[in-house]
């Protein structure tokens, strides 16, 4: 290996890949298996000469313009890419978890309500975070840090036994019959099951993305039933009149903008 390291530093040496395999006493198949044994996910390896093992993957054109260090990698896992970006952005937040944990332990010793605990933790996080002057101004003036043109909606694709349901408020529960099992707030699946017969050919994804369910009829209340503050066109609103749900617990109204569906990818 010391000999190979010496060869890799010698720019004038033209060691071929076949000669490299002879030095390590392997064939190509064994060499590939050895490399694969270290990785649990797919990764791209660019073909290069043995003399270039210490040179980062780069783009000659970008390097001539950027004139800085470069290490390019092919992205095969979007989640890993996002995790890397988030961890890089949050470098200044190192130690925050320990700080919040200590604050939570102090709160547990008192008789604080959950709401008070959450407020203390939120203030602790904001007061201990490093932010730029611009972001501080945005917080002081209550200016939103981001604005989106589309709203999103999450579809719980977990198995039925792993799905979480929200219990109705105490006020509603007290009005129910003691033997009633209708104690949960209806979710997307319940709404879809109880959709109008006129929508029997609408799939679950389209129902979630294209329609809103409201408790009251809103023929011309376009902005109220669309959470995007979008520009409402009259003829778009009148194309689809509200339909009553089978269980009479709401009305279905078509949106003028589709929601972006989020779901757990197994």
From TrEMBL:
Gene Ontology terms for molecular function: calcium ion binding
Record-annotated EF-hand domain positions: 1-30
Domain of life: Eukaryota
InterPro entries reported for this sequence: EF_hand_dom (IPR002048), PIF1_helicase (IPR051055)
Cross-referenced PANTHER family: ATP-DEPENDENT DNA HELICASE
Protein name stated in the entry: EF-hand domain-containing protein
